[in-house]
Amino acid sequence: MQTTASPSLPAAQQTASVRAPGPARPYGRYLYLAINIAILVFLLAPIAIVVVFALNPTPFIQFPPVGVSLRWFEKFFASRDFMHALGFSLEVAVLTTLSATALGASAALALARGNLPGARLIVATMLSPLMLPAILTGLALFQTYVLLDVGRPTWGLVAGHTLVTLPYVVRTTLAVLHNFDLRLEEAAQNLGASPVRTFFEVTLPLIKPGVLAGAIFAFIVSFDQFPVSLFLVSPGNETLPVTLFNYLKFDLDGTIGAASVVSIVLAFVVVIGLDRTVGLRSYVKL
Amino acid sequence: MNSTAATRPNGLALFILPSALLFALFFFLPIGLMAVMSVLTGNPVVMPKVAFTTRHYVRMIGDPFYLEVIWTTVRIGLVTTLVALAIGYPLAHWMARIKSRTGHALLLMAVLAPMLTGIVVRTFAWMTLLSDKGVVNETLMSLGLISQPLKLMYTETGIVVGLVHIYVPFMVLTLTGVIGRIDERLEQAAENLGASPLRAFLEVTLPLSLPGILAGSLLVFALAISAYVTPILLGGFQIMTLPILIYQQISANFNVGFAAALGIVLLVISLLLVVAYNRALGLVSGQRELQ
């Protein structure tokens, strides 16, 4: 699919041509499209504006922009604080992705195939960090670490991130497992494969797209995670969103714009990666 | 899962254990400790004599300030939910009904792109849009529509606008799934029988999508009342919500017990919402089974 085109306009044109309004009542149709395009502008304009401010050279937020420069990107990449935060965020995101994927995928296998009693309740519990306020997860973990006097270690932060990203892996893997043709495994075993060999040569390759989608989700959610990090980071060792937040409290210049563009680009790379590997439709089911 | 007969757990069931351990140690234990801390006079590890107390809860109920904070949080959540529904529904309807595959994919990208942009980044975007010298005010003033900048930031309206932008994708994705399951021929039948498209929508599609409206609204409400970044930055530290108060109790007042009590209040509200959300989604799947 096309990923380079601006999302709103071509979509609108295509709909207009595919679902041509009947001659009898075109106005309702036009109103419908106009409202929807306005909503798309509302959704996407703020992201576009961030890019504009990242490139605008004035030291404060000014509109309309006066020119194009890369000085804020230079400042961002030259800043030790931001670079340290970026590195730490990537480290936490990688560790979180590894643990959430391993735990989430095996939990999904157990839930779909283990004949566990109360599987529905367990699934609901494992998905609950999605709906329970992440700020509570942060607060509760913070209090626990204080009570146990363990300080604010990186593993404590990774555990918190794993908790809030695990639901994504569980959900995407379960989705694949539910659409799975059990006869494929039976066929492998009828042809003489051992259960272990069947697992590695049939089951694992078939659920891989779901696990991968979950892993990519876990990475991006961890990279952008804020409320849990807010409670669990230590001064001088902060993740990028926390550093951005602290910067935003006092300064509103283009550096934030440049930092934002870097994370937006990362998000887009991930979305395109998702679409290339598994297709977007298959897992975006809330 | 339904196809396999109910038998005893097999070897694969053991794969649940690592996640179960994670949830036990890093989810249930901390939340349990939070509940305990909310009824203690102090930290039992460093203080030798701690006693049971209800003072944190009494303080919350007795002081109108805290009730006001809870009400502000709920009010912002409600308005955000209503606005998100109003602008999420048309987009979800379009996404569910669009015929072109490319069109659908582009719409999906448009909804997902903001979702995958961090909350801090999106709040920054709204600060540049809504501030006194921001994009909205500068544009309106250069067009001569206003002479004084509108006060958009540091108001509840500003917070709601930011929160709607952040959480409307959740509404759209929930609604799209539900609207997509409604048979389009029902609408066509209504139109063939003489109903206008608007009436067909109001009397056929809208009632059938009610469970989705409920599920999406509960989700957005749950997310909006627990937001921290957007209310604090767009509210300019002037509007107090429950999450802001909780963090303040930890970072400025070091009052862990009171923070825990506030956390338990937020937890109870959220748990009620989760139960209601699951009920609403149950209605959706129940409907599918009937078809």
Automatic annotation (TrEMBL), chain A:
Q: Which UniProt keywords are listed?
A: Cell inner membrane, Cell membrane, Membrane, Transmembrane, Transmembrane helix, Transport
- What InterPro entries would the database entry show? MetI-like, MetI-like_sf
Q: Which GO terms describe its cellular component?
A: plasma membrane
Identify its membrane topology class. Multi-pass membrane protein
The answer, when asked if Chloroplast is one of the entry's keywords, is no
Coiled coil (UniProt feature): none
**UniProt subcellular location:** Cell inner membrane; Cell membrane
Q: Does the keyword Cell inner membrane apply?
A: yes
Q: Where is the composition biased (Polar residues)?
A: 1-17
A Pfam family matched by this chain, by name? BPD_transp_1
Region annotation (Disordered) maps to: 1-21
Q: Could you tell me which PANTHER family the record lists for this protein?
A: INNER MEMBRANE ABC TRANSPORTER PERMEASE PROTEIN YDCV
Tell me the protein family, please: Belongs to the binding-protein-dependent transport system permease family.
What is this protein called in UniProt? Putative spermidine/putrescine transport system permease protein
UniProtKB/TrEMBL annotation, chain B:
Which domain of life does the protein's organism represent?
A: Bacteria
Q: Which Gene3D superfamilies match?
A: MetI-like
Which Pfam families does the UniProt entry name for this protein? Answer: BPD_transp_1
Q: Which residues cross the membrane?
A: 12-40, 69-92, 104-125, 159-179, 200-222, 228-247, 254-277
Bilayer disposition of the protein: Multi-pass membrane protein
Question: Matching SUPFAM superfamilies, A to Z?
Answer: MetI-like (SSF161098)
Q: Which biological process annotations from GO are given for this protein? A: transmembrane transport
Supply one GO CC term from the record.
plasma membrane
Q: What InterPro entries does this protein map onto? A: MetI-like, MetI-like_sf
Boundaries of each ABC transmembrane type-1 domain copy? 70-277
Localization: Cell membrane
Q: Which family does it belong to?
A: Belongs to the binding-protein-dependent transport system permease family. CysTW subfamily.
Q: Could you identify this protein by its name?
A: Putative spermidine/putrescine transport system permease protein
- Organism of this sequence: Bradyrhizobium stylosanthis
Phylogenetic lineage: Bacteria, Pseudomonadati, Pseudomonadota, Alphaproteobacteria, Hyphomicrobiales
